[in-house]
Amino acid sequence: MKLTIVALALVATASALRAPVLAPRSSPVAMMEKPELADLAKTQNPVVGYWDPLDLAGLNFWGTTDAETIGFLRHAEIKHGRVAMAGFVGYIIHENGIHWPWALSNSFDYASVEGLSAPAVWDAIPIQAKWQIILIIGFFEFWSESKYVLEKDGTSHYMKGGKPGYFPTFKEIPHPVPFNLFDPFGFTKKLSEADKAKKLNIEVNNGRLAMIGLFGFLAEAKVPGSVPALSGLIKPYTGEIMAPFSPADYSFF
User: Rounded CA gap, 253 and 249, in Å?
Assistant: First the structure.
């Protein structure tokens, strides 16, 4: 319960970071240079503004231009923020022992993970379940990077003038897919470009906070007392935070 209260407090803080509306952009999205990136940063967080101490925007990854590198960095931040928001909520769910009311498989018993910390729950699930999760994430990555799929959606790659954060529809999959991954119920279809830009800025800010919050959970679990605000609220974890598989999984190979 205490952990849930902390989470709600963080969400409330995220709401305070909402950014003003940006001017609508033309389609396709124009490539963004450093001055435009600095202006965008100020709209997302007027207090911090543009902060790039490592000058990542000017490193020209893989021999690309500044604009292409900026497209990569913006897409990476949006994507990692989305993953962190899902992970933040997932951590709270598993830390509190919340699960589906039905069995996931005939070989897995919820009692086997009762009382475990959220990372320990991952360690305890069957290797087959881990591979299902890893493979579907891999498919999403492939699908979102496909030039063919993006062109069929009328857009292009985020490093070639496409919109950072865009995830394509599933209409090119031969088998009917009832819902898309992004906005499956079509809530954003009638929004103006200005409203979409505003919501994307809110999403970026919430994603940044989620990344901080999730790593706060992990740090406190691995080193109790390292995050004073979470002391006593997070179950300790003795495993390897960054290892996708536990030692018991290697017997599978």
Answer: 8
